[in-house]
């Protein structure tokens, strides 16, 4: 361009990208360079405001950005190149879509003149990512670039948060155009999420809650997404109403696990008391959760006698799986604020006696101690390992991420989360390989905190390359592998569903994790003795470097309790009932077709 | 165990659908931008909804708005979900279920019209017969030689179906249909 006026708003597309990121409050960027993003990387090189964290695979960049977003409440940002860079980003994009994580993914694209010519490293990125993003854009005009990026941030973090993709052809990165600051950017008129809940509906909900004899609060990731204030309001609501409360996997930490009304997680591997209470309740208040199939079990037997209130920011979540009586569309934080206020203003609060029988029933269920397991002096039980880990980290600012499988469920059952934003896991998509990169993202955001990826021996190998990233950026994450030498959850299902024929679920040729850690320049710790466990965990925590902790646990332990496929909440398989025979017949022929 | 409960068991939502499947016509107002039709169609294929008919064209040039008319089918719950999912798409401004709206207005259906071009070739008596039929159906001749006609016909889909059926044995060559354009009766807009 010949325009050389010193108008501060004229700049190249690549400069626009960096300026737009900065103006949207971005401090960290997870990415991997390549041909189609070189101009942007050149700009990154020439500035210090935004720190770039170089991952080793684009999937890692996405999960790291997710961990960063989930632990801070900010938008996670990733930058990848065209073609394979973009296709590798698909998994974390879908992961973020299903778990409602705000994520902005910038992808390079071949020059506009080459689009459609099957150019080197060309892929139809907007086509491929259309179903796995909240929205996406291909920017063909440099003058629209700034506006699109601002809009991308707005859409990613407002309403129900989610991932967005901005695909930027290389010639657009080189071209000179005008930068528009966020305040002057045009917002799309068709996108107007509803934040405030309908007051009439909230009043009706509070009235219903006041009449409940067997109430329950069922909360989810929406509470976390609504910010720390929403968690405070939730705690206040529990305090005021004395309702028992359970949560989905995604919502752990919104209400403290040490709280007296806490029932534990619900669902397929949830606690007996949580699931029984869900089944038998007369009023269910669902706060920012979506009646996922892992939660409901058999739908036609799901909480048959309750009237249901559903608070959700996404209207399409209402009546999707379960019909509810009082839908409230809005941000959980705003709705809870109204709810707390209206409850306080009730002319006549319900008597304690109204729910005393209910609380007594819950205590009976609780007494079943559904998370109990038989400990051993010779081998480390996975549950024991997590109990010890939780104990050792008490009083510290600890963030937990997980991979996917048995270890993930045990972590959810045994860790006990006290605060929101301290638990990062792949819930909806169930992405093995999520935990290590997510832990890196968390550690970037919280350099002083203790960040632990509770992993399985199979999952950890799916993104193990990010060890390099941990070393390069001095991110002292701790990888605590519950190593049972199996894909434990796959093995458990094969035992339950397929006559214990363990097809391809045994990990032969396991790497030596201690040597692997050392090869990357990290610290490796091995433990197979329950008596040494505490000392070794203390050693792990004390090291100011990334650690791989190879914790050898009982190989064939199963994750209980469990609602077998095709069963209802009150048909749980409890650990003390899970004899070999009960396990073998737990799932009938029809249930076997399900997942 | 209760035998009739067993087969419906599901971690996933696969219990047999007992509610009645209905055909509804939806009007979707969208920003006319690249990819918007793909988003709408992708939603239908991705979530397993059916499309019986789909029509799209820009309706308000100044404000870059297009109107998509979709005829789909499903149980009332599914239809409600389709509408909610469509509204979630960022460039979608409004979704109106015209069939539901017609019901609220005390009418059986919204006004639904389709245009078709129909080419028929032939000579002699069959040629005369085709013209007579076209006249009866109020189909207009828009192109003709001594060997063929192209008719333009407008009406309900069922009327076009019928016309196509009657000219079929008389030398039908090809048919092109626009899909359904629809709106509700009365003074109010969507």
Automatic annotation (TrEMBL), chain A:
InterPro entries: Acetolactate_synth_lsu (IPR012846), AHAS_TPP (IPR039368), DHS-like_NAD/FAD-binding_dom (IPR029035), THDP-binding (IPR029061), Thiamin_PyroP_enz_cen_dom (IPR012000), Thiamin_PyroP_enz_TPP-bd_dom (IPR012001), TPP-bd_CS (IPR000399), TPP_enz (IPR045229). Residues 404-551 form the Thiamine pyrophosphate enzyme TPP-binding domain. GO terms for cellular component: acetolactate synthase complex. GO terms for biological process: isoleucine biosynthetic process; L-valine biosynthetic process. The keyword Transferase applies. The keyword Disulfide bond does not apply. It catalyses: 2 pyruvate + H(+) = (2S)-2-acetolactate + CO2. Its EC number is 2.2.1.6. Pathway: Amino-acid biosynthesis; L-valine biosynthesis; L-valine from pyruvate: step 1/4; Amino-acid biosynthesis; L-isoleucine biosynthesis; L-isoleucine from 2-oxobutanoate: step 1/4. Its cofactor is thiamine diphosphate; Mg(2+). Binds 1 thiamine pyrophosphate per subunit. Binds 1 Mg(2+) ion per subunit. Residues 11-126 form the Thiamine pyrophosphate enzyme N-terminal TPP-binding domain. One of its GO terms (molecular function) is acetolactate synthase activity. Keywords: Amino-acid biosynthesis, Branched-chain amino acid biosynthesis, Magnesium, Metal-binding, Thiamine pyrophosphate, Transferase. Residues 202-338 form the Thiamine pyrophosphate enzyme central domain. NCBIfam families: acolac_lg (TIGR00118), PRK09107.1 (NF006581). Belongs to the TPP enzyme family. This is Acetolactate synthase.
Automatic annotation (TrEMBL), chain B:
Pfam families: ACT_AHAS_ss, ALS_ss_C. It catalyses: 2 pyruvate + H(+) = (2S)-2-acetolactate + CO2. Its EC number is 2.2.1.6. Residues 25-100 form the ACT domain. InterPro entries: Acetalactate_synth_ssu, Acetolactate_synth/TF_NikR_C, Acetolactate_synth_ssu_C, ACT-like_dom_sf, ACT_dom, AHAS_ACT, AHAS_small-like_ACT. It is an enzyme of class 2 (transferase). GO terms for biological process: isoleucine biosynthetic process; L-valine biosynthetic process. Pathway: Amino-acid biosynthesis; L-valine biosynthesis; L-valine from pyruvate: step 1/4; Amino-acid biosynthesis; L-isoleucine biosynthesis; L-isoleucine from 2-oxobutanoate: step 1/4. Keywords: Amino-acid biosynthesis, Branched-chain amino acid biosynthesis, Transferase. The keyword Ligase does not apply. GO terms for molecular function: acetolactate synthase activity; acetolactate synthase regulator activity. Catalyzes the conversion of 2 pyruvate molecules into acetolactate in the first common step of the biosynthetic pathway of the branched-amino acids such as leucine, isoleucine, and valine. Belongs to the acetolactate synthase small subunit family. Dimer of large and small chains. This is Acetolactate synthase small subunit. The gene is ilvN.
């Amino acid at each position: 361009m010949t325009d050389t006026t010193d108008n501060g708003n004229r700049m190249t597309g690549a400069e626009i990208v960096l300026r737009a990121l900065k103006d949207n409050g971005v401090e960290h960027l997870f990415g991997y360079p390549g041909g189609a993003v070189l101009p942007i990387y050149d700009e990154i090189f020439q500035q210090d405001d935004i720190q770039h964290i170089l991952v080793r695979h684009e999937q890692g960049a996405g999960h790291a950005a997710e961990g960063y977003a989930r632990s801070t409440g900010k938008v996670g940002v990733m930058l990848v190149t065209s073609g394979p860079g973009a296709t590798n980003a698909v998994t974390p994009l879908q992961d973020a879509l299903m778990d409602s994580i705000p994520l902005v993914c910038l992808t390079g694209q071949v020059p506009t003149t080459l689009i459609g010519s099957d150019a080197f490293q060309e892929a139809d990125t907007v086509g491929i990512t259309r179903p796995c993003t909240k929205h996406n854009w291909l920017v063909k005009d440099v003058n629209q670039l700034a506006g699109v990026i601002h809009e991308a941030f707005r859409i990613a973090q407002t309403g129900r948060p989610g991932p967005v993709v901005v695909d930027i052809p290389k010639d657009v990165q080189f071209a000179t155009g005008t930068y528009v600051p966020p305040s002057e950017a045009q917002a799309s008129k068709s996108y107007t999420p509803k934040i405030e809940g309908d007051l009439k509906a909230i009043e009706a909900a509070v009235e219903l809650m006041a009449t409940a004899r067997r109430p329950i609060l069922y909360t989810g990731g929406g509470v976390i997404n609504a910010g720390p204030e929403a968690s405070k309001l939730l705690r206040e609501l529990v305090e005021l109403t004395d309702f028992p409360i359970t949560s989905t996997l995604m919502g752990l930490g919104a209400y403290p696990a040490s709280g007296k009304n806490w029932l534990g997680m619900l669902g397929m591997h949830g606690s007996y008391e949580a699931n029984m209470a869900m089944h038998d309740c007369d009023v269910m208040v669902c706060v920012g959760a979506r009646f996922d199939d892992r939660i409901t079990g058999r739908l036609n037997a799901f909480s048959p006698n309750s009237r249901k209130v559903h608070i959700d920011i996404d209207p399409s979540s209402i009546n999707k799986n379960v019909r509810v009586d009082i839908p409230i569309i809005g941000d959980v934080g705003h709705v809870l604020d109204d709810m707390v206020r209206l409850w306080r203003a009730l002319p006549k609060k319900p008597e304690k006696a109204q729910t005393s029988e209910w609380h007594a029933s819950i205590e009976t269920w609780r007494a079943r101690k559904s998370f109990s397991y038989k400990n051993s002096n010779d081998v480390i039980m996975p549950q024991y390992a997590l109990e010890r880990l939780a104990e050792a980290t008490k009083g510290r600012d600890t963030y937990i991420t997980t991979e996917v499988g048995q270890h993930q469920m045990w972590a959810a059952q045994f860790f006990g989360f006290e605060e929101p934003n301290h638990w990062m896991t792949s819930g909806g998509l169930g992405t093995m390989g999520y935990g290590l990169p997510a832990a890196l993202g968390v550690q970037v955001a919280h350099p002083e905190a203790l960040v632990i990826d509770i992993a399985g021996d199979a999952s950890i190998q799916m993104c193990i390359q990010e060890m390099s990233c941990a070393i390069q950026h001095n991110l002292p994450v701790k990888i605590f592998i519950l190593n049972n030498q199996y894909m434990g959850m796959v093995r458990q299902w094969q035992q339950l569903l397929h006559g214990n024929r363990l097809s391809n679920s045994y990990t032969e040729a396991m790497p030596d994790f201690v040597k692997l850690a050392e090869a990357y320049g990290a610290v490796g710790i091995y433990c197979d003795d329950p008596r040494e466990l505490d000392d070794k965990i203390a050693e792990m925590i004390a090291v100011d470097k990334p650690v791989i902790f190879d914790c050898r646990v009982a190989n064939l332990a199963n994750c209980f309790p469990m609602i077998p496929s095709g069963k209802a909440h009150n048909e749980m398989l409890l650990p003390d009932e899970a004899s070999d025979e009960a396990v073998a017949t737990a799932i009938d022929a029809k249930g076997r077709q399900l997942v | 165990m209760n035998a009739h409960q067993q087969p419906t068991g599901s971690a996933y939502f696969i219990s047999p659908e007992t509610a009645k499947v209905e055909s509804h016509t939806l009007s979707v107002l969208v920003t006319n931008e690249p990819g918007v039709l793909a988003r709408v169609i992708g939603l239908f294929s991705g979530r397993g909804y059916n499309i019986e008919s789909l029509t799209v064209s820009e309706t308000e040039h100044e404000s870059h708005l297009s109107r998509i008319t979709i005829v789909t089918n499903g149980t009332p719950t599914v239809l409600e979900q389709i509408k909610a999912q469509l509204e979630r798409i960022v460039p979608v401004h409004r979704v109106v279920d015209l069939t539901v709206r017609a019901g609220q207005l005390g009418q059986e259906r919204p006004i639904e019209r389709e245009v078709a071009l129909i080419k028929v070739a032939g000579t002699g008596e069959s040629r005369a017969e085709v013209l007579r039929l076209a006249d009866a159906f109020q189909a207009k001749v828009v192109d003709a030689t001594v060997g063929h006609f192209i008719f333009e016909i407008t009406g309900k889909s069922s009327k076009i179906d019928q016309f196509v059926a009657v000219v079929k044995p008389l030398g039908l060559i090809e048919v092109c249909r626009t899909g359904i354009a629809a709106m509700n009766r009365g003074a109010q807009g969507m």
